[in-house]
Design a protein that fits this description.
Keywords: Isomerase, NAD. By secondary structure, the protein is α/β, with parallel strands linked by helices. Helices cover 36% and strands 17% of the residues. It is built from 13 helices and 19 strands. The longest helix is centred in the middle third of the chain and has 21 residues, at 160-180. Bound molecules: uridine-diphosphate-N-acetylglucosamine.
Amino acid sequence: MESPRQSDASSPVEPCSPICVDTPATQSSVLFDGNLDDLLRNFPLHQYILVTGGLGFIGSHTTLELLKAGYNVIVIDNLSNSFQSVFDRINLLAQKHHEEQGTQMPALHLDAHDYRDTAALKALLEQYQIQSRWGSPKSNIAGVIHFAAYKAVEESIRNPLKYYANNVSGLVDFATTLGEYGIKTFIFSSSATVYGTLATSGLPLKEELCAHKDEVFQGVDGLDQTVKAGCTGITNPYGRTKWMCEAILADLAASDPEWTIVALRYFNPIGCDESGLLGEDPRQTPTNLLPVVVKVMTGEYMELQMFGTDWETEDGTAVRDFIHVTDLARGHIAALDAANAENLVENFRAFNLGTGRGHSVMEVVDTMESVSSKRIPTRAAPRRPGDVGSCVAVATRSQQELHWKTEKTLRDACGSLCKFLEVGSLSFP
Ligand code: UD1
């Protein structure tokens, strides 16, 4: 009998039975016709991807892109900052995609509990274990994407232990349990915040600048540069939790070659799915730029305060690397594919996920005004504590090693948010 906290999206693919053999359910006449990679993607391999925080802003978009790409997905989410309706919307959008493509809809399950609830986690993982009488444990869960974490900078300064307990201690327990079940492919949701004040140093933000072992790489002057393991100038507890988690995961990978771990350092995710049906958590009072801009557009806020108009940038407002959330979501799939194909340089690898191009706060406002044909009142305000003037990714490592690059523009992101305002946000939850 299904546990009450589990939801299954109706799907033509049978969910994995408690004990599955790792044999693809193939139809031989089809198998030899087309491109094997494409076919494998679209067959129910009885393998699942576990996504924690899969109903949050980035998590929901990633879950949708995974389903579109043919992965079966289990979401763990405690609904603390998301809605059950997001699950239904993901399911609807994925079904529509597969109907249009004439492909099979993969399985989608929701386990609505906290990722730190180890008893509930073990009960879930038991269901996906492959029965094996010898050797190390094996699972039908082929990888984990871990989003569940607190992320408000200001709150982390007021209540650091809440952040260290959930983000850091939670991760240690979670990885321990996963290891016990033989699930050792892990994609970690990190942040450009790990670069701290390096963002304003003028140095291009390459992954090597924040490393977990000593690194030698070619600097901008073409000379070898050595960076010691450690972190430099992280400005808040939230940022430190992300760095600590990366360091813990790097140590774990070094201790056990069976683990393959990728840390994805997000720059500034914006926008939403082009349907307008998924968006950014309307439960929270927004502090990030675009959600505040949206509140101004709906009339909930009178104006946008531009925090800092005296930065050393072209127009004086801060510059960020804004990345469309759908591009970001696809970056996770590229990372998962590279990890499962054992294509990574090392079994712990960090990647920037950004566009490599900066836009100022003023440019964002101008673009949104032009896309929405609405005026967005602004007011110059003092710099926000902890802010940096500019933070832009060097995106070459992810392009070269993950074969991933962004495709969408700031204009696309603004357009998708206008759509969200039209169709998506009003009917939450
Ligand atoms: C913030 C977080 C960062 C996190 C990232 C991911 C802080 C200090 N940092 O980055 O840790 O990884 O989000 O989403 O919160 N701005 C305004 N007016 C507003 C809101 C923002 O001018 O009402 C400006 C900010 O001052 C900043 C820029 O817009 O210069 C971007 O701000 P925001 O969207 O909050 O992102 P970050 O500060 O870059």
